[in-house]
Design goal:
Length: about 325
């Protein structure tokens, strides 16, 4: 694994990990000032909330993604890890977004953005057990911000069943197309045909004539994962399964809804801005999402349908 292990926080402390650096210096943006509190060395105590953040700096964690955090805390002590960690990533430093809370207990690796002004309050409630990470996920807006004002996503995140182990997904610098429902073999073949058909190496979308590409429905290039080990895999469980060796663009799940709803929709999982956040898209739109993410033309949340609003790609 290319990232070093994370330090074990003292009981009751929460890691606040910087993942953005310039010339070896940690970039926090305005986050530390926004949090306020009292700093003592590498510990930031957040006022009346009683929360202690241990600041973690080191260029070895540059571009660390939320989904990779749980694996970096295993085997570092006998005590149970804290229920969450906090990332100050590039979206915080340059985008002004709230810090990313990463689930370490219920569904490790999924994330939720939190307004920085409410971080102490929310962490205190999580540590006290009066708030669960599922409560945060249930109240995110279209951008993955807890109780944000950018509209409710049209499709709620499913509640994961009791923890179940899945194998790691393949390492890929492109996208992954993962089959999670196996009752409709004909539907699966129809999906692959709609995406251009698989090649001999198990990819779709690799044999496209540039002159025939419809830029409005850009073809998806993805490595196919057709393995019953991933049956029932849900979006929030995906980020922790993606190996950190490559910068995987996204993971698209072919689930039961793919084979029953019009347009062969895929459940596409964000791996970077808000890990585990999902968008339900007709399969013909997923390639456009992947290309725009790779070129940084658009953000993942631009493809998340908003409750009560006709998506722009259907207008």
């Amino acid at each position: 694994m290319p990232f070093p292990e994370l330090p074990r926080p003292a009981p009751g402390d929460v890691l606040l990990i910087c993942t953005c650096y310039e010339d070896g210096e940690a970039l926090w943006g305005g986050l530390l000032d926004e949090l306020g509190g009292r700093r003592d060395g590498d510990v930031l105590a957040l006022g009346d909330a009683g929360v202690r953040l241990r600041l973690v700096e080191g260029t070895g964690w540059t571009y660390l993604h939320g989904g990779n955090v749980p694996a970096l805390l295993t085997g570092t002590g006998t005590d149970a890890p804290p229920p969450v960690a906090v990332l100050a990533d590039i979206s915080v430093v340059y985008g002004g977004d709230g810090p990313l809370l990463v689930d370490l207990a219920a569904t490790p690796g999924r994330g939720v953005r939190i307004p920085s002004a409410r971080l102490g309050e929310i962490l205190a409630a999580l540590l006290a057990g009066t708030l669960a990470f599922d409560d945060l996920v249930d109240a995110v807006d279209r951008r993955g911000m807890y109780q944000g004002d950018h509209g409710r996503p049209a499709f709620r995140a499913p509640t994961p069943p009791p923890r179940r182990s899945f194998p790691a997904l393949p390492s890929s610098a492109a996208a992954l197309l993962v089959r999670t429902a196996f009752a409709d073999e004909e539907g699966w073949r129809a999906l692959l045909d709609a995406l251009g058909g698989p090649d001999e190496d198990g990819w779709v979308g690799t044999d496209q004539d540039p002159d025939e590409i419809d830029v409005e429905h850009y073809p998806l290039t993805a490595l196919i994962v057709d393995d019953r080990f991933f049956e029932g895999l849900l979006p929030g469980q995906v980020p922790a399964l993606v190996p950190p060796e490559e910068h995987t663009t996204l993971v698209a799940l072919a689930d039961a809804r793919t084979f029953t709803d019009p347009g062969l929709p895929l459940t596409v999982v964000d791996l970077h801005d808000t890990p585990g956040h999902a968008a339900l898209l007709p399969c013909r739109q997923v390639g456009s999402l992947a290309v725009n993410l790779e070129l940084a033309n658009m953000d993942f949340h631009d493809f998340v349908a908003e409750e009560g609003v006709t998506p722009w790609w259907e207008g």
